[in-house]
Design goal:
The complex is a heterodimer. By secondary structure, chain A is mainly alpha-helical. Chain A has 15 helices and no strands. By secondary structure, chain B is an all-alpha fold. Chain B contains 13 helices and no strands. Classes of the chains: A mainly alpha, B mainly alpha.
Chain lengths: ~280, ~260
């Protein structure tokens, strides 16, 4: 009992048309623009010194932000899911914070904290410590905008799993670390992996917040997205799209990994609900 | 637990506190002037207006997409379903330059739209297009699970009681979908208002015409007008807060009325 056939065909075609223009076409455009001048030019633009520096900086920022946020995410989810304490919902709201503010505002906050006009500003320049308009600022901003991902992924998961297994482990004599390592973490491994790849995707692709704190100094304080912007504004769009294509490949890998995780966790027939990327990120 | 609190205060609370303290050094009069200046007002109109339009488009098309993905079979469905997450996972700068390339005069879409008189790139329409792209996953992903969980029992019951297909859609299914639809709308809207990277390429950034509020904040920062930038940020946060509160009330209303 469903709609008449012509209605179904109409609805499917309209949906596919809309999704085709907004999802499929952009993918095609990225790669066709990147390779417009041929493969050699593409490879050249990726190996160019400023581009290579941008890639390096992006990787460094992600390499610092992701593990830190991973540890934080596990700690926070552990505390929230397994214990009761005052201010718990405030903590949860706080974790949501980077999601609800514009990335530009996130970057602004760090400029206000560490820039020349702030309290710390004079002290920092006395000691010749550069944070804003230098690499540390970029890393800090990246940590800020990506810190919720692992936590938000793990909290509902751990909450729905309860603390019985951990309690059982304790009664059997397991220490704190043992319980964490051998009971809690294996239970949440797919959610954890999920959170990590989301965190990584955002860390490498972040634009607004990093743009504000970066200073855009070529070869020094540009990440891949920022370098792409500079190239594009100089009308060097082929090189810009070459940078963009690197990030797009990362995105496609992220989406593929997500599908893989969904499939694996369903195969394991556990009570791991399907977590669409968006729902996972925004669940209240 | 201790580690969590320490990390959070370091990374979140202290920076946030800094922002607000800065604004207070400004004085009420100057704050008001900055926040209600002509350029600022034009940017709010654009940011909020375009976000509302984009979120509405996404609500309609997202509902359609969710329906089609859950209820029907067609070749390539699984790939399309996975691709819905693309705008959420794709870096905003990539989205920005790609959409601009697509809708500019010589782009795949622009090359046939502009001769028809529809100019998208470097106009407010371009902003709407970019915000629609960025908000696409939100409604689809909030409606899909609810649609999936929907018991066919109710539709069958309605049919046996003589309801036409359209009637049972309107009176049985749609009320169930209204809450997640509103949630998706709210999420898409909230994301759109603060969006920066995907919009600044296609918009053209002309003050008073196609300048979004986040860009105005960045411009002020570049001029070292830190207090002005902070004032605008506070205004933006306040407006988003009010609008989201309103949407939350709508959701509460729909839940009590329909659920």
């Amino acid at each position: 009992m469903t709609e008449p056939r012509w209605v179904r065909v109409l609805l499917i075609s309209s949906a596919l048309l809309f999704l085709g223009v907004f999802l499929v076409l952009p993918l095609i455009v990225v790669f066709s623009e990147a390779f417009k001048k041929g493969v050699e030019v593409y490879i050249e633009s990726v190996r160019e010194p400023d581009a290579a520096a941008a890639i390096r900086l992006t990787l460094i920022a992600a390499a610092i932000a992701v593990p830190l946020n991973l540890v934080f995410g596990v700690a926070a989810a552990w505390a929230i899911a397994k214990f009761q304490f005052p201010g718990k919902s405030f903590l949860i709201t706080l974790i949501d914070l980077p999601f609800s503010v514009s990335p530009v505002i996130s970057g602004l906050i760090f400029v206000l904290l560490f820039g020349l006009q702030s309290w710390l500003g004079p002290w920092l320049s006395e000691h010749d410590i550069k944070i804003i308009f230098a690499v540390p600022g970029i890393v800090l901003a990246t940590i800020f905008v990506t810190f919720p991902f692992v936590a938000r992924e793990l909290i509902p998961l751990m909450q729905s799993q309860g603390s019985e297994e951990e309690e059982a482990a304790r009664t059997l004599g397991a220490g704190g670390w043992q319980t964490l390592w051998r009971v809690t973490l294996p239970n949440v491994k797919w959610g954890l992996l999920y959170g990590v790849i989301l965190c990584n995707a955002r860390a490498m692709g972040e634009f607004g917040a990093v743009s504000v704190v970066s200073g855009h100094i070529r070869g020094y304080t540009n990440t891949i997205p920022l370098h792409a912007e500079i190239l594009y504004n100089e009308y060097n769009s082929t090189a810009a799209f070459a940078m963009a294509s690197l990030l797009t490949i990362l995105t496609l890998v992220t989406i593929a990994l997500k599908a893989l995780i969904d499939w694996k966790s369903q195969v394991e027939a556990r009570e791991v609900p399907e977590r669409p990327l968006v729902e996972a990120a925004y669940e209240h | 637990m201790g580690f969590t609190v320490f990390y959070l205060s370091l990374i979140v609370l202290i920076p946030l506190g800094a922002a607000f303290l800065k604004t207070f050094t400004m004085g009420w009069g100057q704050f008001w002037e900055t926040v209600t200046g002509a350029r600022a007002l034009a940017s709010y109109r654009l940011s909020i207006g375009a976000s509302l339009i984009a979120a509405s488009i996404n609500s309609v098309m997202g509902l359609l997409a969710a329906w089609v993905l859950v209820r029907y079979e067609f070749p390539g469905k699984r790939i399309v379903d996975a691709l819905v997450d693309l705008p959420f996972a794709l870096p905003t700068a990539v989205a920005g330059i790609t959409l601009t390339a697509m809708f500019a005069g010589n782009g795949w879409m622009g090359s046939w739209l502009e001769p028809l008189g529809i100019k998208i790139a470097f106009t407010w329409l371009g902003v709407v297009v970019a915000l629609t792209f960025i908000g696409l996953p939100f409604v689809v992903r909030t409606v899909q699970p609810v649609l999936q969980e929907l018991d066919p029992e109710f539709e069958e019951a309605a049919a046996t009681l003589g309801a036409s297909r359209w009637q049972s859609l309107r009176r049985v299914i749609f009320p169930e979908l209204l809450p997640p639809l509103l949630t998706g709308f709210a999420l898409a809207f909230a994301r759109a208002v603060g969006e920066y990277g995907s919009v600044i390429f296609i918009s053209g950034n002309m003050p008073m015409k196609t300048e979004i509020t986040p860009l105005l904040i960045v411009t002020k920062l570049a001029q070292y007008d830190y207090t002005g930038a902070t004032a605008l940020a506070v205004a933006m946060l306040a407006m988003s807060f009010v609008l989201l509160l309103f949407i939350n009330m709508l959701q509460w209303w729909s839940r009590t009325r329909y659920a």
